[in-house]
């Protein structure tokens, strides 16, 4: 489940979709495709899946077969200055030159990303994307169920949704800055400048510190520099590190699938993929130890060469984070999101029981995985001072997440359900 690595800012997650309509309809169509002896792109096109995705999520996407049998990835659309999306926003902006002063400006834009309904609209629905899924996932009586395939596809759709959310935020910021550059010098009173700044805050979700002082500046470039600085600061973790936020892009895609009801099937699909690709997390302690011995001996002979300087350089190059969370931690975050699902809304007792059973299944999957630290990974985290600081920040952020999605709440909910019998 891949995408080209970028540094993505932390975006907000969609709300839990309790109805489960999208999941039900998608799995029905995938079940029919898995009944075919041989899957072809024409079968996928005629299945109505693209229409379903458009109707339920507002996303225009087609699914095609990947070249690798068990591969899954999305091609994020390339947006340049001549793209339809940019042109339409530009036309709207130039035709609404006074709208920047309207506090409801954001609602008038021709395209929105609705986190509550998990749906995009307007010009975002005109952007076409392709999702590639390996033939092996469609195999009749194969390794993956229709529900697991649905989870994988919805994960990729989650990448698109996060992309549109990020794109929406970027465009709003760009056009706010254009308004400042175009109109600032022509505003002859402090009150008018403050009105413009307040509209920019409303449009970009930026909170200016000392807005009255900022209104006294004469140069629009100063205001725009502050806007850029505020966005950059907001895109960094509050703990001062981007490392944990880099893989939040993958986590948001997992969360998108989970909040559409695919928690169990996503976790089980990931577990199968880890084992298929011999991920170290699926190894026994003995197997991982032997792997580490080979790695250490090979590295000692070919890289380090006995030099302490080379060793430090090597450790500095060892990543302390990846595009994805470690497998066990990834399942744990899915589990935490399911616990959050129990918290968000007063739900029927039968649905609560179903979620508690899913948590038990997730616990079972989690127990089969081990997030080992190899020798070099361990040394990279604790030997170099700046790495220790980064790693501690990451671990602290994970601890905060664990407090939000804690197992104690699930246990209390389980006792509550038992008392209602």
Would you write up a description of this structure?
With 421 residues, this protein is mainly alpha-helical. The protein has helices at 21-34, 41-46, 49-57, 84-95, 105-108, 146-183, 190-204, 211-214, 220-234, 243-246, 248-276, 285-304, 308-317, 327-344, 349-367, 375-382, 385-404, 407-419, and strands at residues 60-66, 72-75, 111-114, 119-122, 128-134. The strands form two sheets. It has a three-stranded mixed beta sheet. A two-stranded antiparallel sheet has the order 3-4. Helix 1 (21-34) packs antiparallel against helix 3, helix 1 (21-34) crosses helix 6 and helix 11 packs across helix 15. The protein is globular, with a radius of gyration of 24 Å. Residues 2-10, 99-107, 236-244 and 314-320 have low confidence and may be disordered.
SSE blueprint:
Blueprint: H1 21-34, H2 41-46, H3 49-57, E1 60-66, E2 72-75, H4 84-95, H5 105-108, E3 111-114, E4 119-122, E5 128-134, H6 146-183, H7 190-204, H8 211-214, H9 220-234, H10 243-246, H11 248-276, H12 285-304, H13 308-317, H14 327-344, H15 349-367, H16 375-382, H17 385-404, H18 407-419
Parallel strand pairs: 1-5
Antiparallel strand pairs: 2-5, 3-4
Helix pairs in contact: 1-3, 1-6, 6-7, 6-9, 6-11, 11-14, 11-15, 14-15, 15-18
């Amino acid at each position: 489940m891949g995408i080209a690595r970028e540094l993505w800012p932390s975006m907000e997650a969609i709300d839990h979709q309790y109805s489960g309509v999208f999941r039900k309809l998608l799995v029905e169509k995938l079940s029919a495709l898995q009944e075919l002896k041989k899957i072809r792109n024409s079968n996928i096109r005629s299945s109505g899946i693209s229409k379903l995705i458009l109707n339920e999520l507002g996303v225009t996407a087609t699914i095609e077969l990947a070249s690798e049998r068990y591969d899954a990835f999305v091609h994020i659309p390339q947006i340049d200055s001549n793209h339809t999306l940019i042109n339409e926003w530009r036309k709207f902006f130039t035709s609404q030159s006074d709208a920047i002063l309207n506090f409801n400006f954001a609602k008038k834009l021709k395209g929105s990303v609705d986190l509550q309904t998990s749906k995009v609209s307007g010009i975002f629905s005109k952007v076409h994307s392709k999702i590639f899924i390996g033939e092996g996932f469609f195999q009749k009586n194969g390794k993956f169920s229709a529900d697991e395939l649905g989870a994988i596809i919805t994960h990729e759709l989650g990448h698109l949704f996060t992309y549109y959310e990020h794109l929406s935020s970027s465009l709003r910021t760009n056009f706010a800055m254009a308004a400042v550059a175009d109109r600032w010098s022509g505003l002859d009173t402090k009150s008018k400048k403050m009105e413009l700044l307040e509209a920019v805050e409303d449009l970009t979700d930026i909170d200016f510190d000392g807005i009255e002082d900022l209104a006294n500046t004469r140069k629009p470039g100063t205001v725009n520099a502050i806007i850029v600085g505020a966005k950059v600061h907001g895109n960094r973790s509050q703990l001062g590190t981007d490392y944990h936020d880099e893989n939040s892009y993958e986590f948001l895609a997992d969360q998108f699938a989970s909040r559409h009801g695919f928690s169990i099937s996503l976790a089980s699909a990931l577990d199968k993929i880890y084992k298929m690709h011999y991920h170290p997390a699926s190894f026994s302690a003995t197997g991982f130890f032997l792997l580490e011995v080979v790695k250490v001996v090979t590295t000692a002979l070919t890289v380090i060469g006995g030099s302490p300087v080379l060793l430090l350089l090597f450790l500095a190059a060892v990543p302390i984070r990846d595009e994805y969370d470690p497998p066990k931690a990834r399942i744990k975050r899915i589990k935490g999101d399911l616990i959050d699902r129990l918290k968000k809304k007063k739900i029927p007792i039968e649905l609560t029981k179903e979620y508690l059973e899913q948590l038990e299944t997730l616990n079972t999957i989690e127990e089969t995985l081990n997030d080992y630290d190899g020798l070099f990974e361990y040394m990279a985290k604790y030997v170099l001072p700046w790495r220790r600081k980064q790693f501690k920040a990451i671990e602290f952020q994970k601890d905060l997440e664990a407090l939000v999605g804690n197992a104690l709440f699930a246990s209390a909910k389980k006792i509550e359900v038992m008392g209602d019998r």
